[in-house]
Inverse folding.
Protein backbone atom coordinates (compact mmCIF):
# COMPACT_ATOMS: atom_id res chain seq x y z
CA UNK A 1 0.00 0.00 0.00
CA UNK A 2 2.01 2.91 -1.27
CA UNK A 3 1.54 6.45 -2.43
CA UNK A 4 4.99 7.93 -2.40
CA UNK A 5 7.32 10.31 -4.17
CA UNK A 6 11.01 9.66 -4.60
CA UNK A 7 13.01 12.76 -3.72
CA UNK A 8 16.69 12.47 -4.54
CA UNK A 9 18.14 15.70 -3.21
CA UNK A 10 16.97 15.93 0.40
CA UNK A 11 18.71 14.26 3.30
CA UNK A 12 18.02 13.93 6.99
CA UNK A 13 21.03 14.40 9.25
CA UNK A 14 21.41 12.17 12.28
CA UNK A 15 24.19 14.42 13.52
CA UNK A 16 22.26 15.29 16.71
CA UNK A 17 22.54 11.68 17.86
CA UNK A 18 26.24 11.45 17.17
CA UNK A 19 26.84 14.72 18.98
CA UNK A 20 25.03 13.39 22.02
CA UNK A 21 27.02 10.17 21.97
CA UNK A 22 30.36 11.91 22.23
CA UNK A 23 29.11 14.37 24.84
CA UNK A 24 29.40 17.60 22.86
CA UNK A 25 26.88 20.21 23.97
CA UNK A 26 24.54 21.68 21.40
CA UNK A 27 23.41 25.27 21.57
CA UNK A 28 19.67 25.59 21.02
CA UNK A 29 17.86 28.64 19.82
CA UNK A 30 15.06 28.72 22.35
CA UNK A 31 13.25 31.58 20.68
CA UNK A 32 12.50 29.63 17.47
CA UNK A 33 9.71 27.03 17.01
CA UNK A 34 12.24 24.57 15.56
CA UNK A 35 14.63 24.71 18.54
CA UNK A 36 15.95 21.43 19.89
CA UNK A 37 14.31 20.01 23.05
CA UNK A 38 17.54 19.97 25.03
CA UNK A 39 16.15 18.43 28.23
CA UNK A 40 14.64 15.52 26.31
CA UNK A 41 17.85 15.03 24.36
CA UNK A 42 19.81 14.95 27.60
CA UNK A 43 17.50 12.20 28.86
CA UNK A 44 18.05 10.30 25.62
CA UNK A 45 21.80 10.65 25.99
CA UNK A 46 21.59 9.45 29.61
CA UNK A 47 19.54 6.39 28.61
CA UNK A 48 21.99 5.63 25.81
CA UNK A 49 24.84 5.74 28.29
CA UNK A 50 23.05 3.48 30.80
CA UNK A 51 22.42 0.88 28.12
CA UNK A 52 26.06 1.03 27.08
CA UNK A 53 27.32 0.56 30.63
CA UNK A 54 24.69 -1.59 32.39
CA UNK A 55 22.87 -3.73 29.85
CA UNK A 56 23.40 -7.47 30.32
CA UNK A 57 25.18 -7.80 26.97
CA UNK A 58 27.40 -5.48 24.97
CA UNK A 59 25.38 -3.65 22.32
CA UNK A 60 26.77 -2.16 19.13
CA UNK A 61 26.47 1.63 18.97
CA UNK A 62 25.22 1.54 15.40
CA UNK A 63 22.49 -0.97 16.23
CA UNK A 64 21.35 1.10 19.21
CA UNK A 65 21.07 4.24 17.12
CA UNK A 66 19.31 2.38 14.32
CA UNK A 67 16.76 1.08 16.82
CA UNK A 68 16.31 4.62 18.13
CA UNK A 69 15.57 5.83 14.60
CA UNK A 70 13.05 3.03 14.09
CA UNK A 71 11.38 3.94 17.37
CA UNK A 72 11.08 7.59 16.36
CA UNK A 73 9.47 6.67 13.06
CA UNK A 74 7.17 4.01 14.50
CA UNK A 75 5.80 6.64 16.87
CA UNK A 76 4.76 8.90 13.97
CA UNK A 77 2.38 6.80 11.88
CA UNK A 78 2.21 3.29 10.38
CA UNK A 79 3.80 4.32 7.07
CA UNK A 80 6.96 6.20 8.07
CA UNK A 81 9.95 3.86 8.29
CA UNK A 82 13.69 3.44 7.86
CA UNK A 83 14.72 1.54 4.74
CA UNK A 84 17.95 -0.43 4.91
CA UNK A 85 20.10 -0.09 1.75
CA UNK A 86 18.97 -3.45 0.31
CA UNK A 87 15.30 -2.66 1.04
CA UNK A 88 15.66 0.78 -0.54
CA UNK A 89 17.04 -0.81 -3.71
CA UNK A 90 14.04 -3.12 -3.86
CA UNK A 91 11.63 -0.22 -3.32
CA UNK A 92 13.08 1.41 -6.43
CA UNK A 93 12.45 -1.84 -8.29
CA UNK A 94 8.88 -2.05 -6.92
CA UNK A 95 7.89 1.23 -8.57
CA UNK A 96 8.96 -0.16 -11.95
CA UNK A 97 6.80 -3.25 -11.54
CA UNK A 98 9.31 -6.02 -10.81
CA UNK A 99 10.60 -7.31 -7.50
CA UNK A 100 11.34 -10.49 -5.59
CA UNK A 101 9.17 -11.97 -2.87
CA UNK A 102 5.63 -13.19 -2.30
CA UNK A 103 3.52 -10.47 -3.90
CA UNK A 104 1.69 -9.36 -0.78
CA UNK A 105 0.85 -5.94 0.66
CA UNK A 106 0.96 -5.88 4.46
CA UNK A 107 0.70 -3.43 7.33
CA UNK A 108 1.15 -3.48 11.09
CA UNK A 109 -1.90 -4.49 13.13
CA UNK A 110 -2.71 -2.77 16.42
CA UNK A 111 -1.95 -6.05 18.23
CA UNK A 112 1.60 -6.09 16.89
CA UNK A 113 0.82 -8.66 14.19
CA UNK A 114 1.19 -8.28 10.44
CA UNK A 115 -2.12 -7.92 8.64
CA UNK A 116 -2.61 -8.53 4.91
CA UNK A 117 -4.02 -5.55 3.03
CA UNK A 118 -4.24 -7.59 -0.17
CA UNK A 119 -2.30 -10.11 -2.24
CA UNK A 120 -1.35 -8.82 -5.68
CA UNK A 121 -3.09 -10.50 -8.60
CA UNK A 122 -1.37 -13.61 -9.95
CA UNK A 123 1.52 -13.60 -7.44
CA UNK A 124 2.58 -16.54 -5.24
CA UNK A 125 0.63 -15.12 -2.27
CA UNK A 126 -2.50 -14.78 -4.38
CA UNK A 127 -2.19 -18.27 -5.85
CA UNK A 128 -1.54 -19.75 -2.39
CA UNK A 129 -4.90 -18.46 -1.17
CA UNK A 130 -3.80 -15.58 1.07
CA UNK A 131 -6.81 -13.31 1.69
CA UNK A 132 -7.19 -9.62 2.57
CA UNK A 133 -7.49 -9.31 6.33
CA UNK A 134 -5.43 -12.42 7.16
CA UNK A 135 -3.22 -11.98 10.23
CA UNK A 136 0.30 -13.35 9.87
CA UNK A 137 1.34 -14.71 13.27
CA UNK A 138 4.52 -16.60 12.31
CA UNK A 139 7.12 -16.42 9.56
CA UNK A 140 8.64 -19.89 9.44
CA UNK A 141 9.11 -20.52 13.16
CA UNK A 142 9.61 -16.87 14.16
CA UNK A 143 6.69 -15.19 16.01
CA UNK A 144 5.66 -11.95 14.33
CA UNK A 145 4.32 -10.20 17.43
CA UNK A 146 6.73 -7.44 18.38
CA UNK A 147 8.62 -7.69 15.07
CA UNK A 148 9.15 -4.42 13.18
CA UNK A 149 7.25 -4.21 9.90
CA UNK A 150 10.40 -3.74 7.82
CA UNK A 151 11.97 -6.79 9.48
CA UNK A 152 8.90 -8.88 8.64
CA UNK A 153 8.98 -7.67 5.04
CA UNK A 154 12.69 -8.52 4.80
CA UNK A 155 11.98 -12.05 6.05
CA UNK A 156 9.30 -12.55 3.41
CA UNK A 157 11.60 -11.39 0.65
CA UNK A 158 14.31 -13.77 -0.49
CA UNK A 159 15.91 -15.68 -3.33
CA UNK A 160 13.39 -16.83 -5.96
CA UNK A 161 12.67 -20.54 -5.65
CA UNK A 162 13.10 -20.64 -1.87
CA UNK A 163 10.08 -21.19 0.35
CA UNK A 164 8.68 -19.64 3.50
CA UNK A 165 5.96 -20.92 5.84
CA UNK A 166 3.31 -18.39 6.84
CA UNK A 167 1.11 -19.17 9.82
CA UNK A 168 -2.03 -17.07 9.56
CA UNK A 169 -5.10 -16.43 11.67
CA UNK A 170 -8.24 -16.01 9.59
CA UNK A 171 -11.67 -14.93 10.70
CA UNK A 172 -13.95 -17.96 10.79
CA UNK A 173 -11.10 -20.47 10.80
CA UNK A 174 -11.08 -22.64 13.97
CA UNK A 175 -7.29 -22.69 14.20
CA UNK A 176 -4.25 -21.02 12.58
CA UNK A 177 -3.54 -22.01 8.98
CA UNK A 178 -0.01 -22.85 7.82
CA UNK A 179 0.73 -22.04 4.19
CA UNK A 180 4.00 -22.72 2.36
CA UNK A 181 4.75 -20.21 -0.39
CA UNK A 182 7.59 -20.30 -2.90
CA UNK A 183 9.24 -16.94 -3.48
CA UNK A 184 9.47 -15.64 -7.04
CA UNK A 185 10.56 -12.63 -9.02
CA UNK A 186 7.31 -10.73 -9.22
CA UNK A 187 6.48 -9.26 -12.60
CA UNK A 188 3.34 -7.27 -11.98
CA UNK A 189 0.90 -7.31 -14.88
CA UNK A 190 -0.67 -4.15 -13.51
CA UNK A 191 -3.29 -3.69 -16.26
CA UNK A 192 -5.38 -5.95 -18.43
CA UNK A 193 -8.73 -5.54 -20.15
CA UNK A 194 -11.38 -7.52 -21.97
CA UNK A 195 -14.60 -6.91 -23.85
CA UNK A 196 -17.59 -7.84 -21.71
CA UNK A 197 -20.26 -7.76 -24.39
CA UNK A 198 -21.18 -5.50 -27.27
CA UNK A 199 -19.39 -2.20 -26.79
CA UNK A 200 -18.83 -2.53 -23.06
CA UNK A 201 -15.34 -3.16 -21.70
CA UNK A 202 -13.72 -4.19 -18.43
CA UNK A 203 -10.26 -3.03 -17.28
CA UNK A 204 -8.43 -4.25 -14.20
CA UNK A 205 -5.69 -2.13 -12.57
CA UNK A 206 -3.91 -4.26 -9.96
CA UNK A 207 -1.35 -1.68 -8.83
CA UNK A 208 -0.18 1.80 -9.83
CA UNK A 209 3.30 2.07 -11.33
CA UNK A 210 4.98 4.73 -13.41
CA UNK A 211 3.85 3.10 -16.68
CA UNK A 212 0.32 2.07 -15.67
CA UNK A 213 -1.46 4.79 -17.64
CA UNK A 214 0.38 3.89 -20.86
CA UNK A 215 -0.49 0.21 -20.35
CA UNK A 216 -4.13 1.12 -19.73
CA UNK A 217 -4.32 3.15 -22.94
CA UNK A 218 -2.86 0.25 -24.92
CA UNK A 219 -5.35 -2.19 -23.42
CA UNK A 220 -8.27 0.16 -24.11
CA UNK A 221 -7.10 0.60 -27.70
CA UNK A 222 -7.04 -3.18 -28.12
CA UNK A 223 -10.55 -3.79 -26.74
CA UNK A 224 -11.89 -0.79 -28.63
CA UNK A 225 -10.77 -2.43 -31.87
CA UNK A 226 -12.48 -5.66 -30.80
CA UNK A 227 -15.67 -3.64 -30.26
CA UNK A 228 -15.53 -2.18 -33.77
CA UNK A 229 -13.90 1.13 -32.91
CA UNK A 230 -16.17 2.49 -30.15
CA UNK A 231 -16.84 1.85 -26.49
CA UNK A 232 -20.17 2.70 -24.86
CA UNK A 233 -18.97 2.07 -21.34
CA UNK A 234 -16.12 0.87 -19.14
CA UNK A 235 -15.94 -0.99 -15.84
CA UNK A 236 -12.68 0.05 -14.13
CA UNK A 237 -11.80 -2.47 -11.41
CA UNK A 238 -9.73 -1.06 -8.53
CA UNK A 239 -10.76 -3.64 -5.92
CA UNK A 240 -7.92 -4.88 -3.74
CA UNK A 241 -5.58 -2.41 -5.45
CA UNK A 242 -3.10 -1.43 -2.71
CA UNK A 243 -1.96 1.76 -4.44
CA UNK A 244 1.49 2.54 -5.79
CA UNK A 245 3.17 5.70 -7.00
CA UNK A 246 1.33 9.02 -6.95
CA UNK A 247 2.25 9.88 -10.55
CA UNK A 248 0.69 6.61 -11.72
CA UNK A 249 -2.64 7.52 -10.10
CA UNK A 250 -2.56 11.03 -11.55
CA UNK A 251 -1.82 9.73 -15.07
CA UNK A 252 -4.59 7.11 -14.92
CA UNK A 253 -7.11 9.71 -13.75
CA UNK A 254 -6.00 11.95 -16.61
CA UNK A 255 -6.89 9.21 -19.11
CA UNK A 256 -10.58 9.92 -18.39
CA UNK A 257 -10.72 13.60 -17.41
CA UNK A 258 -10.64 16.69 -19.64
CA UNK A 259 -10.01 19.44 -17.10
CA UNK A 260 -9.83 20.39 -13.46
CA UNK A 261 -7.92 19.24 -10.40
CA UNK A 262 -7.10 15.55 -10.08
CA UNK A 263 -5.57 15.64 -6.61
CA UNK A 264 -3.66 18.04 -4.39
CA UNK A 265 -1.13 17.29 -1.69
CA UNK A 266 -0.50 19.49 1.36
CA UNK A 267 2.21 19.28 3.96
CA UNK A 268 4.45 21.56 6.00
CA UNK A 269 7.13 22.14 3.37
CA UNK A 270 6.75 24.13 0.17
CA UNK A 271 7.60 21.20 -2.10
CA UNK A 272 4.90 19.04 -0.47
CA UNK A 273 2.14 21.43 -1.59
CA UNK A 274 1.34 20.39 -5.14
CA UNK A 275 -1.79 20.44 -7.30
CA UNK A 276 -2.13 18.04 -10.23
CA UNK A 277 -4.47 19.05 -13.07
CA UNK A 278 -6.02 17.13 -15.95
CA UNK A 279 -5.09 17.70 -19.57
CA UNK A 280 -7.85 18.21 -22.18
CA UNK A 281 -8.26 14.64 -23.42
CA UNK A 282 -10.73 11.96 -22.37
CA UNK A 283 -9.67 8.65 -23.88
CA UNK A 284 -13.26 7.34 -23.73
CA UNK A 285 -14.78 10.54 -25.16
CA UNK A 286 -17.36 10.77 -22.43
CA UNK A 287 -18.48 7.13 -22.46
CA UNK A 288 -20.08 6.00 -19.21
CA UNK A 289 -17.84 4.60 -16.47
CA UNK A 290 -18.31 2.55 -13.31
CA UNK A 291 -15.39 2.15 -10.90
CA UNK A 292 -15.33 -0.88 -8.59
CA UNK A 293 -13.75 -0.44 -5.13
CA UNK A 294 -13.66 -2.25 -1.80
CA UNK A 295 -11.86 -2.22 1.55
CA UNK A 296 -8.64 -3.32 -0.17
CA UNK A 297 -8.62 -0.28 -2.48
CA UNK A 298 -6.04 2.03 -0.95
CA UNK A 299 -3.93 5.13 -1.50
CA UNK A 300 -3.40 5.70 -5.24
CA UNK A 301 -6.55 3.70 -6.01
CA UNK A 302 -8.50 6.09 -3.78
CA UNK A 303 -7.02 9.09 -5.59
CA UNK A 304 -8.42 7.79 -8.88
CA UNK A 305 -11.81 6.89 -7.41
CA UNK A 306 -12.08 10.24 -5.61
CA UNK A 307 -11.13 12.27 -8.69
CA UNK A 308 -13.59 10.49 -10.98
CA UNK A 309 -16.32 10.72 -8.34
CA UNK A 310 -15.84 14.43 -7.64
CA UNK A 311 -15.87 15.29 -11.35
CA UNK A 312 -19.05 13.20 -11.86
CA UNK A 313 -17.06 11.24 -14.43
CA UNK A 314 -17.84 7.80 -13.01
CA UNK A 315 -20.20 6.03 -10.68
CA UNK A 316 -18.32 4.39 -7.79
CA UNK A 317 -19.70 0.96 -6.89
CA UNK A 318 -18.67 -1.42 -4.10
CA UNK A 319 -17.78 -0.98 -0.43
CA UNK A 320 -15.96 1.80 1.43
CA UNK A 321 -12.25 2.00 0.63
CA UNK A 322 -9.26 1.61 2.95
CA UNK A 323 -8.76 5.29 3.80
CA UNK A 324 -5.04 5.92 3.31
CA UNK A 325 -4.83 9.59 2.46
CA UNK A 326 -1.17 10.35 3.09
CA UNK A 327 1.88 10.71 0.88
CA UNK A 328 5.26 9.19 1.74
CA UNK A 329 8.44 10.75 0.37
CA UNK A 330 11.59 8.64 -0.02
CA UNK A 331 14.56 10.60 1.34
CA UNK A 332 17.91 8.94 0.47
CA UNK A 333 20.55 8.80 3.21
CA UNK A 334 24.32 9.11 2.75
CA UNK A 335 24.83 5.45 3.77
CA UNK A 336 22.72 4.04 0.93
CA UNK A 337 19.65 3.68 3.14
CA UNK A 338 16.57 5.88 2.94
CA UNK A 339 13.90 7.42 5.11
CA UNK A 340 10.30 6.86 4.04
CA UNK A 341 8.54 9.76 5.72
CA UNK A 342 4.92 10.88 5.64
CA UNK A 343 5.15 14.42 4.28
CA UNK A 344 1.64 15.34 3.15
CA UNK A 345 -2.04 14.46 3.04
CA UNK A 346 -3.78 14.30 -0.29
CA UNK A 347 -7.14 15.88 -1.12
CA UNK A 348 -9.69 15.10 -3.82
CA UNK A 349 -10.87 17.79 -6.28
CA UNK A 350 -13.74 18.73 -3.93
CA UNK A 351 -11.19 19.26 -1.13
CA UNK A 352 -12.03 16.02 0.66
CA UNK A 353 -9.40 14.38 2.81
CA UNK A 354 -10.03 10.64 2.91
CA UNK A 355 -7.38 9.93 5.55
CA UNK A 356 -8.84 7.27 7.88
CA UNK A 357 -12.24 7.79 6.21
CA UNK A 358 -12.04 6.31 2.75
CA UNK A 359 -14.15 6.84 -0.36
CA UNK A 360 -17.83 6.01 0.12
CA UNK A 361 -19.24 4.49 -3.11
CA UNK A 362 -22.26 5.99 -4.85
CA UNK A 363 -23.72 2.48 -4.96
CA UNK A 364 -23.01 0.26 -1.93
CA UNK A 365 -23.04 -3.44 -2.74
CA UNK A 366 -22.06 -5.16 0.50
CA UNK A 367 -20.79 -8.72 0.22
CA UNK A 368 -22.38 -9.82 -3.04
CA UNK A 369 -21.75 -13.01 -4.97
CA UNK A 370 -23.52 -15.42 -7.31
CA UNK A 371 -22.75 -18.29 -4.96
CA UNK A 372 -21.00 -19.00 -1.66
CA UNK A 373 -17.78 -16.92 -1.91
CA UNK A 374 -15.93 -19.11 0.59
CA UNK A 375 -14.40 -17.89 3.80
CA UNK A 376 -14.84 -14.21 4.51
CA UNK A 377 -12.03 -12.09 5.84
CA UNK A 378 -11.64 -8.94 7.89
CA UNK A 379 -11.30 -5.75 5.88
CA UNK A 380 -8.48 -3.58 7.23
CA UNK A 381 -8.66 0.17 6.80
CA UNK A 382 -6.36 3.06 7.67
CA UNK A 383 -8.46 3.82 10.77
CA UNK A 384 -7.42 0.43 12.22
CA UNK A 385 -3.72 1.24 12.11
CA UNK A 386 -1.77 2.34 15.17
CA UNK A 387 -1.06 6.08 15.13
CA UNK A 388 -2.97 6.82 11.93
CA UNK A 389 -3.29 10.47 10.89
CA UNK A 390 -6.55 12.22 11.60
CA UNK A 391 -9.67 10.69 13.17
CA UNK A 392 -11.71 7.64 12.25
CA UNK A 393 -13.62 4.81 13.84
CA UNK A 394 -12.37 1.23 13.81
CA UNK A 395 -14.36 -0.68 11.21
CA UNK A 396 -14.36 -4.33 10.29
CA UNK A 397 -16.46 -5.73 7.47
CA UNK A 398 -16.52 -9.02 5.58
CA UNK A 399 -15.06 -9.04 2.10
CA UNK A 400 -14.82 -11.72 -0.51
CA UNK A 401 -11.57 -12.75 -2.12
CA UNK A 402 -11.65 -10.97 -5.47
CA UNK A 403 -9.23 -12.40 -8.00
CA UNK A 404 -8.63 -11.41 -11.62
CA UNK A 405 -9.96 -14.15 -13.86
CA UNK A 406 -9.74 -13.79 -17.62
CA UNK A 407 -13.01 -15.58 -18.31
CA UNK A 408 -16.21 -13.55 -18.85
CA UNK A 409 -16.17 -11.55 -15.67
CA UNK A 410 -19.87 -10.75 -15.65
CA UNK A 411 -20.70 -14.47 -15.46
CA UNK A 412 -18.71 -15.11 -12.27
CA UNK A 413 -18.39 -11.73 -10.57
CA UNK A 414 -21.61 -10.23 -9.23
CA UNK A 415 -20.22 -6.70 -8.92
CA UNK A 416 -19.00 -6.70 -12.52
CA UNK A 417 -22.49 -7.82 -13.60
CA UNK A 418 -24.04 -5.05 -11.48
CA UNK A 419 -21.62 -2.52 -13.00
CA UNK A 420 -22.43 -3.66 -16.54
CA UNK A 421 -26.17 -3.34 -15.89
CA UNK A 422 -25.58 0.12 -14.40
CA UNK A 423 -23.65 1.21 -17.53
CA UNK A 424 -26.54 0.08 -19.71
CA UNK A 425 -28.97 1.98 -17.50
CA UNK A 426 -26.86 5.15 -17.73
CA UNK A 427 -26.83 4.96 -21.54
CA UNK A 428 -30.59 4.39 -21.65
CA UNK A 429 -31.11 7.42 -19.41
CA UNK A 430 -28.84 9.51 -21.65
CA UNK A 431 -30.83 8.56 -24.73
CA UNK A 432 -34.09 9.60 -23.06
CA UNK A 433 -32.48 12.86 -21.89
CA UNK A 434 -31.39 13.64 -25.46
Amino acid sequence: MKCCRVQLHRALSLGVLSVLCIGISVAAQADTPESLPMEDLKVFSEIFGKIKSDYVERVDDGELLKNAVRGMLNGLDPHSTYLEPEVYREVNIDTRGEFGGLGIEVTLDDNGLIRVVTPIDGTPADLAGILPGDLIVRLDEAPVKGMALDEAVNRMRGKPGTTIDLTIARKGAPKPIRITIERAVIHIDSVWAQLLEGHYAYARVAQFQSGTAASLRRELTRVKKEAGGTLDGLVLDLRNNPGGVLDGAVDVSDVFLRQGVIVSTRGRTEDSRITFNATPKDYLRGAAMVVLVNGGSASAAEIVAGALQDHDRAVILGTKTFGKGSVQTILPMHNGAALKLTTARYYTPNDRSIQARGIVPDVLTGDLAFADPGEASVVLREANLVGHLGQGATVEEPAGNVKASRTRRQDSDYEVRAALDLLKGINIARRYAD
About this structure: The chain has eleven helices and 23 strands. Residues 189 and 257 are 24 Å apart (CA to CA).
